[in-house]
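Need a sequence for this fold. Nothing fancy.
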């Protein structure tokens, strides 16, 4: 059975296929009967003396039996091009032979028959095929009736021959053409069905992935809560003992608990220095953990920069164990700015501690200045930097320490970066201080830059844009 097309087919194609939606085997046999009769007529009324009458009867009988034989052929054969095409070729050859053998087939009849076959093969519309089937015998009959002087009875069979030929070849050509279209549509439908199944599988996979993401999110949230609890406990449990150690060391250093000799004083100074380093490291780790968990700057409060630097200055009156002079240079009329005071103070502390750590003798100078300078903004800068003429305060921490080689300058703000990472390195630490400074500067909308050379010291500059209060 030939199936009807889908609803997506063009209107003309749908109408044409519905007209041919018949059992292909039975329809072809029925259409072929008139065709065999035409061929038989041409043979039976043959005027060719070269072929005997028994031979003509034999050919006619053979052709009629060929149509009877089709009744016993399987229905599936009629859907196969390899069965259908040879059958049409056989019928065409038999029609040509019948016309050649018949002496009654004139040149005009040859032309009409083959023109009808040609038109049926190239016509792509069922309405056009019907037009060919009607117009061919009508025009041929019109010219035959006008030109014939003596009307033989067989002339009427000739007139209907183009109609039968058009019916046979038109049906065959249209069936093959529509079946080819149907095959393409079936393939497209199968492809669409596969795509639909793939889409369903992808949707199911997406649902599974979403469920996995939900579970991963819940696990991450739980891990974050555990981390926050851990950091909270460690912040208290580690800082408290260190503060106690530093407190007792300070009492010893100030001789509150009695006199100590020079060797003991040196040991106390080392205790205080190492304890301070540990406290700074813990503070940095907690700060980074807070930043990575999404903690940004607070809304900001009014901060008097002079008071903030005065507070910092009080913490660096003496540099233990080193012949280092800490110099502070800032005016008393620094502006009041809106920023996160704790994060700014933490960044400056880390820069000062870094300068003291790598300076054994000489000076560490902390300066602060304000002004308006034409500065070029860079990608990722805070929105305030988009204005080329902006108010800023510039904190500069310079030292006369060991300096930094040029090849290390691009990496000094990376996490855990240490110029000397060997087990026997001279300077303690985990390489977090400057990384924290960079992160804090980003949060505050500031920039941190460095210039340095080995043996000539280093200068770190923290530039903070601000709006005047």
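Here you go.
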């Amino acid at each position: 059975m030939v199936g009807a097309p889908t609803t997506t087919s063009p209107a003309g194609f749908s109408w044409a296929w519905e007209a041919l939606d018949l059992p292909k085997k039975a329809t072809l046999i029925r259409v072929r009967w008139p065709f065999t009769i035409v061929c038989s007529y041409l043979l039976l009324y043959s005027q060719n003396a070269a072929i005997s009458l028994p031979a003509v009867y034999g050919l006619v009988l053979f052709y009629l039996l060929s149509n009877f034989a089709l009744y016993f052929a399987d229905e599936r054969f009629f859907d196969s091009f390899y069965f259908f095409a040879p059958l049409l070729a056989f019928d065409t050859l038999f029609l040509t032979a019948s016309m050649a053998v018949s002496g009654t087939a004139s040149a005009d009849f040859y032309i009409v028959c083959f023109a009808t076959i040609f038109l049926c093969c190239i016509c792509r519309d069922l309405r056009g095929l019907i037009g060919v089937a009607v117009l061919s015998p009508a025009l041929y009959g019109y010219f035959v009736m006008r030109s014939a002087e003596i009307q033989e009875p067989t002339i009427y069979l000739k007139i209907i021959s183009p109609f039968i030929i058009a019916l046979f070849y038109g049906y065959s050509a249209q069936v093959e053409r529509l079946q080819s279209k149907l095959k393409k549509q079936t393939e497209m439908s199968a492809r669409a069905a596969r795509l639909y199944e793939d889409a369903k599988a992808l949707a199911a996979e997406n649902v599974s992935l979403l469920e996995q993401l939900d579970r991963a999110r819940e696990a991450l949230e739980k891990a974050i809560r555990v981390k926050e609890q851990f950091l909270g406990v460690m912040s208290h449990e580690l800082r408290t003992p260190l503060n106690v150690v530093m407190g007792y060391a300070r009492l010893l250093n100030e001789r509150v608990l009695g006199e100590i000799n020079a060797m003991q004083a040196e040991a106390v100074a080392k205790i205080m220095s190492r304890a301070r380093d540990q406290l700074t490291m813990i503070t940095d780790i907690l700060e980074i953990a807070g930043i990575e968990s999404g903690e940004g700057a607070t809304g900001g409060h009014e901060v008097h920069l002079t008071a903030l630097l005065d507070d910092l200055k009080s913490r660096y009156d003496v540099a233990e164990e080193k012949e280092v002079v800490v110099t502070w240079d800032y005016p008393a009329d620094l502006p009041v700015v809106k920023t996160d005071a704790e994060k700014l103070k933490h960044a400056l502390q880390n820069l000062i501690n870094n300068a003291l750590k790598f300076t054994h003798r000489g000076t560490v100078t902390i300066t602060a200045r304000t002004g308006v300078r034409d500065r070029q903004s860079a990608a990722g800068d805070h929105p305030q930097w988009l204005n080329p003429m902006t108010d800023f305060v510039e904190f500069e921490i310079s030292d006369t320490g060991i300096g930094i080689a040029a090849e290390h300058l691009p990496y000094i703000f990376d996490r855990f970066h240490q110029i000397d990472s060997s087990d026997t390195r001279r300077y303690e630490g985990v390489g977090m201080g400057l990384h924290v400074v960079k992160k804090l500067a980003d949060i505050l909308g500031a920039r941190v830059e460095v210039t340095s050379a080995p043996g000539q010291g280093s200068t770190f500059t923290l530039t903070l844009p601000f709006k005047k209060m």
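For context: The chain has eleven helices and seven strands.
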